[in-house]
Amino acid sequence: MKMLRFRSPSLRSLDQEIFCTIRLLDDSEISCSIQRDTKGQFLLDHVCNHYNLLEKDYFGIRYVDPEKQRHWLEPNKPVVRQMKAQQPYTMCFRVKFYPHEPMKIKEELTYLLYLQLKRDIYHGRLLCPFAEAAYLGACIVQELGDYDPEEHPSDYIRDFKLFPKQSLKLERKIIEIHKNELGQCAALAELNMLQRAHTLETYGVDPHPCKDFTGSTAFLGFTATGFVVFQGNKRIHLLKADVSKLKFEGKTFYVIGIQKEKKLVLTFHTSTPAACKHLWKCGVENQAFYCAKSSQIKTVSSSNIFFKGSRFRYGRVAKEVIEASSKIQREPPEAQFGQSRSFNSLSHKNLIMNMEPLVPALPSTNEYEDMAMDS
User: Fold this and answer.
1) From CA 336, how far away is CA 25, in angstroms rounded?
2) What separation, in Å, do the N-terminal and C-terminal C-alpha atoms of the chain show?
3) Dihedrals φ, ψ of 190, to 5°?
4) How far apart are CA 201 and CA 203, in angstroms?
5) CATH no. of 102-126+129-197
6) What pLDDT digit, counting tens, does each position of 114-134 carry?
7) Which of 31, 167, 183, 225 is 20 to 30 A from 73, alpha carbon to alpha carbon?
8) Architecture of the domain spanning 208-330+338-356
9) Helix, strand, coil percentages for the chain (3-state, nearest 5)
């Protein structure tokens, strides 16, 4: 009988250095080398050390695989096991969990959140009515200084790429507001932008494209308060207390909940199984971060007798992060840069509410692919 020989990895292969580039929120880059057994937490720590940040839990490292599917780098797994792209690796440092009350952040993290929100506006993730869009645009422009009629021609806003679809009407309104912000320093303009942006319904929403049960395009997202679906200028919103379970099987994603004492099962279809799994993981992590009291029970599963699924572990929850932040004793760093009863079913149509037209318009599926490249 022939014996099989299993070859263990050589010390040389384990020590082989792999080059990584991480794009920061201001589009600058930092680089480092890792080994094959280096875990994702090392890269997050590397970036947070660059910023001198202690409150790391709001942030994550995101990457895009060769099929243009976005992923969050899992901190407890080796980087090499997660990356499907060829070396050297390129990733992005992004806000993963948006502070529910950004004005109460313990450390001086507001500038990083401000940079993330600027990206969200430009890439069409932060949607808002026309008046709100103009105000946010004026806050961003004010970062560079007061309006000066001798330096700013009538069309100077055209040089600022603030929104993916920037109309002349919007530019004129931004100019009007900018003229009235004389004497406002950049730091105050940033705080004003955060204060207004965090009240918007799509604050912190990362839209996942899918199809509903009719085959119509929809965008699913998660916030600190619940689960939201956007279709044109209509939306479905469920509070976290109304959502009892998130499940997936193949390309099908299920939201199971209760509203108005009726059982609710919303079904959506993603383009690939990988996109469906990513959607589920984002939903479970979001619910855990904002709602759970402790991260001691970390392993979550989507499997049961009726559904195939997956398992993964999540990190600290918001309650733990806030408690840890309150104990920080140092000068802030400077920014560089289910019920078991049976209920009648409730359809999608019963939940739909009309909204004011949003700026920019909800992205098409093709535009979402461009957003994925931004990561």
Assistant:
1) 11
2) 53
3) -65, -45
4) 6
5) 1.20.80.10
6) 999 999 999 999 988 999 999
7) 225
8) Roll (2.30)
9) 30, 25, 45
Residue 231 backbone dihedrals phi, psi, to 5 degrees:
-140, 105
CA gyration radius, the chain:
22
Nearest to 353 by CA among 233, 223, 261, 265: 233
CA angle 32, 37, 41 (to 5 degrees): 60
The neighbour count for residue 188, using CB atoms within 10 Å, is 14
C-alpha 142: how far from chain center: 25
Q: Taking Cα atoms as reference points, which of 24, 60, 20 lies closest to residue 36?
A: 20
Q: Which amino acid is at 316?
A: R
**Domain residue spans in the chain?**
15-95, 102-126+129-197, 208-330+338-356
What are 300's strand-pairing partners?
A: 312
The length of the chain in residues reads 375
The C-alpha atoms of residue 190 and residue 109 are separated, in whole angstroms, by: 12
Closest of 278, 280, 221 to residue 253, by C-alpha: 280
The residues, ordered by sequence, that sit 6+ positions from 273 with a Cβ below 8 Å of its Cβ are 250, 251
Q: Are strands 59-64 and 89-95 parallel, antiparallel or unpaired?
A: antiparallel
**38 vs 14: CA distance, rounded Å:** 10
Higher pLDDT, 293 or 137: 137
Give ∠ CA 364-370-375 in degrees, rounded to 5: 120
Q: What is the Cα–Cα distance from 157 to 163, expressed in whole angstroms?
A: 11
pLDDT per residue as tens digits for the range 216-268: 999 999 998 888 999 887 888 888 888 888 999 999 999 998 877 788 899 99
How many angstroms separate the CA atoms of 306 and 37, rounded?
Answer: 36
15-95 CATH: 3.10.20.90
Tokens 């099987």 sit at which residue?
Answer: 249
Give the pair of three-digit tokens for residue 89: 């690796």
The tokens for 362 are: 């909800």
Q: What is the rounded CA–CA span in Å between residue 170 and residue 176? A: 10
CA nearest 138: which of 112, 160, 120?
160
Q: Give the number of other Cβ atoms within 10 Å of residue 156's Cβ.
A: 16
Q: Which of 39-43, 166-170, 313-317 shows the lowest per-residue confidence on average (mean pLDDT)? A: 313-317
What is the structure's pLDDT at 371? 55
